[in-house]
């Protein structure tokens, strides 16, 4: 159980869901242990947040456990998406713990945002990788089938096809050196889904991830992005954390989840406005 | 390069092939790093084997590198099998380094043995696992479509369906406590493929594997089995080694490969007799 | 959740309770992570046990989670004991996951056995250690205040005072070399509590423990002891597992818990007979 | 022995004392190994400091070894304080290696400073934690019973009660983003005790600590704080280093100790002026 | 094989050569595993570089494997230098993977540059260390016998003799805080050899090295230095990476090698102009 | 300090000396950390030995610390030998902690035994290795220049030249399977030096060593050999322990040292009789 998730699932405003999918990682596997690593290394965090003057335990967060993964990613996403849509229908914000980045697709499908903001070293805009269109290297491309626009913050690598796709109007790439400026100007006109691929951070900050990519974001840049974007959000995830470091990646992941909840809750007394996009059919 | 593999691929009597498939591991992933871990930890072994009075470097072993894996196991097996069949057609014995146990199927398909002898904690006799018939938990079942009989040495766990299947005539289960006796009586009447799933060993001996299963074989039992079976063999593999220990599993895996080659070479001056089953079509 | 604990707490025949007490470990701390490490590394075990022809998921095992620990061991034991006594009053067998060995006292107090059988490298018969009578090094001494006799299986070290105490009639010491013989003659005339201090095993088998002591039991000796003693038991624990190895100690601990349940359940269709010693007051 | 501590204890100007207390760590234990880890990872540092043109071996530093810890923190602090007071009475500056942060209390008691400056992620201003007033989470609160004022540099988390206490006049909180500014204005009007809780650093810089807290100080910020404060100091410690990373935390801890000694020695030809507060009774 | 080294050795413009010398490391050994660690952790990097619009696989890079090391450093350097000179004579740029820093001498000898630019925490200007003039702590001093000038970027420690030597005209020391300024003014009037001692980086960035020295360069500073200097270079190395972290040092080392190749290739359509200093005798 | 070494150096009957030489290890380096790892992992052992009814702290053991190593092995051996000879001249038994196996030569030179008994996987009978006659792979050959006979217990690998040398009269090879028998018949007619190369043990028992060699001795076989040989000994060492496992190799090494002292002390009330071979010149 993620520390401080004292709410009942049905009464919750936020619901943590673990999604330990780990089938397409190309380099270092282990993200299947990500959800439990994040839960473990969030243990020492204080309940109280001084900046927003809130207690995590009073913000209505529940932990629904993991949706057990198997090796058919597409089928898994469908199933996971259903679980997350139930969360949305219960007027709660899903907080997804990956697992590989692929699982963000389920989060997006369930929350139906206008914009996908993603902290990531990689563009993840491939149409397929090794013949697999559900590879973690394709997730932002898949997500663009659902959302109106994608912003990849901290991106620093990709294939020519990905960079070409990134030049289209519905994609914004914010390289690490432009993050502060982008944050200063950030303004959202519709519901956002925020996805934190932990490899957006520099490997010194988050070595426990499948594909370390040097020259990344600092932990405070990650934090400031989460704080800035959270108020506009209908869904959130932290993905690509594995168990191959001494807890740095998981500690950061768990902290960013808490920063998300504090910032989101502080900005609205009520459940997030989803623009009517994710209503239960028949509602 | 596996240490001591000084032969040219074309002139070799034994060819090491890495098969870093790592898609169906249910618990701890990382067997994709198995081939290189085994190569690394075989570094300190002496070239000379006192028991058989042979030099490894004089036994005609080549290292053909890895057959890069992707996440479609069935397609990969077909491709890998082709690579291994080329080895067989060149009158050499393939020495496969996994990767997950699934890759043994390709080894068997390429060498077409009569008998599949396998050191393994698990029966691996499932028809499918989580809907996947090419899971490592099904490999011996798949292999039984090709061979006449399977012997699972060191087996100590399985599902009821697996145990039921194991009672049929074409399967022999040798529990850890019966290994010495079985070895004493071992006699082969046809070509054998020997597969070493490193989890056949006790976790104290080989902790670096995907699914540790206590109460397993000692390293000397593993060695004695390899020595006894090798002379009858047309193919060999070591699988399920990962990078999650301090080198114990890889060190054992590399040593058993060498024991295989020493024992096999000592028993025959020429290339192994494959009973005419794996001839190149048209030869 | 310990894998396979599908029963509801109230309807369960066996209840797993984590007790992450970690205050008196003299050398390598970390046994606070023991319960979750054991749960994690029990993941890959098959549900079905061939020897007893039983499914773990059909044996009525629940996981009640952890009883959060703090640094007042004596107060914690009182609280923990209450939790475990509830389990007993519900006619279930408590399966305690340590945590340091001290927690066994709570298990004993809750189950009120006649005999305490303990696998341990150490006598744990000190009256106090560094002024602390609730140190893990004193647990068997404390337990002797409650039970009629203690048997320390695999014991190989202690202070002179401990060895002297061990010579009294109510203590039996079974050194590692005598375990097979002792098991052959084991017969119980009253309810037993079985405690597995994982350091009873040789460090090669269970390096992840607070005070490794070489020349210990093999994993099969541990298993055979658990199988032999389990039928007589009213309570069970695995203690002193920490997170400082590659999973070997936790994997063994989780396996022994399963062996306990299989053996105990196979020996009795009903809940264990506790000789009327642990009845709820007023029942 | 800390590298370069070539002075005799009696003739020393600085005395290293290890204090491996490790009883109240709430999350990851192991700080008992802190003193030896710091000694080990200080091995490769050059004797010569270019900035101050001094040799560490010529600055009169002795290593008095460890004061062995046991689990009664309060009694231990009394004993440790006596050892450190002896150092002070011998006109030397104690350099304490923790161990948990609690040990700073003994350092403060022995040196009787006017001001307690502390690098820490946490306020450590609780009155008690889990009923324990000698928890590491209470150390700055305890210290405030002895000193006139406390400054917590790098603080970023605490309970509401801690933040409330922090608003009183005798406490200054310097958040990470204000450290440079605070350092620029730092001026001391009385003896200072400087305590480095290594978790003041960002987890990327010092992952080997009991309670990682993201968004912390960089190593150069830590260094600049030590350099600025050292000249005013009568005592120093580095605490909360454990053995759970690859040496980063220990390497930083040992380096900061050296920076302290270089800066302190460079600022005064003689032993530090303690304002007459810590004189031996009867002197 | 370093990922993406698809060129044939004879036709290559760049040749990777591993030099696993590991005999003089004073603190943490293991740099013998550096070449293979770097190759492994370079696996996930994209082939395409967006900044320079180039594919690594199209830049003519070959991997010639390792030059096996033994414990006579001086003899090894002679041999290694021969191997590297062959690379130079074939009009290719050697890319050396250490091994200890000593191996840079062979790179310099083979490429005969005018200037030696080196990222390093240490001056490496000793005449000998423990009586050994071929210690890694002497490499820049040795190199100064061959080149006209040396620049040590990121240097922050050394002995008085080293600092004195550094004040001579042929040595420039760029402390970490002056790197940006130095880069802005960098201009080369002759061939340069660029050596990356990974300990130039802060230990948070590259913990896996023999002698961590806090307060070092960030990964982007390292990158910017490589990008700026590469166009002037006739040779390059990454040294002092070992296997004692979670891949951070190796990942950075492999990335910097790629940055070097991208920047070097982008600046010249042809092989580097070596100023006629390294011509094959008789050419 | 090795735990329990309470004697003063001058008054001691046994003197621990660390010899962290680590220059010729061919595979995994790190034995320089061996002495401190052994001291650390010997911490939890009881002072009292039940078998011999002795307290370690009463047996007169001192720890003289380490003889700092440098990279000229031959010069180091001369220096180390002098230190050890001082121990012998003070009528104490040296207990050497390696460091690579080479250091045994210094122990032998200082104690001048008739017989060298060595637990080792390797024959170590090479005349030179990579041109180095002081490689750890040559130590038993070097020792044979000093002693009358060598017995290599647990040996299982070597070059043809080594096996040939081993057939001469002054060498006895006891393979792992013959150890029990050899121990039963062991009888010494002159002073013995006992060297424990920890790689004599199976890698499951002692993974933390430079060159793991499977199929080795169990920990109890190692112990029984030490107990049997100790009474005849004038010197003892434990070598080839490094820091690359979770403490298993060091824990075993420290335990065997204690077993040696208990067994040696129990067999003689006085200092060992060295047959007059190691008298101080002029005595
Ligand atoms: Mn991604
Ligand atoms: Mn990514
Ligand atoms: Mn298998
Ligand atoms: Mn298996
Ligand atoms: Mn115990
Ligand atoms: Mn114990
Ligand atoms: Mn603190
Ligand atoms: Mn703190
Ligand atoms: Mn250097
Ligand atoms: Mn350096
Ligand atoms: Mn040896
Ligand atoms: Mn050896």
From TrEMBL, chains A, B, C, D, E, F:
Residues bound to Mn(2+) 2: 124
Binding site for Mn(2+) 1: 101, 120, 122, 197, 199
Cofactor needs: Mn(2+)
Keywords annotated in UniProt: Hydrolase, Manganese, Metal-binding
SUPFAM superfamilies: Arginase/deacetylase (SSF52768)
Superkingdom assignment: Archaea
Record-stated family: Belongs to the arginase family. Agmatinase subfamily.
NCBIfam families with a match to the protein in the record: agmatinase
Name of the protein this chain belongs to: Agmatinase
Organism: Salinigranum rubrum
Gene name per UniProt: speB
